[in-house]
Amino acid sequence: MTQLTKDQVKHIAKLARLELTESELEKFPKELTSILQYIDMLKEVDTTGVEPTAQATGQSNVFRDDEIRQSSTSPDALLGCSPLPLADHQIVSPSAHG
Amino acid sequence: MLSTLTITQAHDKLTKREVSSTELIQACIDRIEAVDGTLNAIVCRNFEKALEEAKKIDSVGKFPSPLTGIPYLTKDVYCEAGVPTTACSNILREKTYIPPFDSTTRKRLKEAGAISVGKTNTDEFTMGASTETSCYGPTRNPWDTTRVAGGSSGGSAAGVAASEGLFALGTDTGGSIRQPAGFCGTTGLRTTYGRTSRYGVMSMASSLDTIGPICKTVEDTAIVLQSIAGKDPLDATTSDVPVPDYRADLRKGMKGLRVGIPKEYFIDGLDPSVEASVKAAIKEFERQGATLVDISLPHTKYALATYYVICPSEVSSNMARYDGVRYGHTVKNPKSLLDYYEQVRSTGFGSEVKRRIMIGTYALSAGYYDAYYRQAQKVRTLIGRDFDEAFKNVDVILTPVSPTPAFTVGAHADDPVAMYLEDAFMDGAVMAGIPAMSIPCGFSKNNLPIGLQLMTAQWQEALLLRAAYAYEQETDWHTKLPPL
Question: In the annotation, is B75 catalytic?
Answer without folding.
Answer: yes
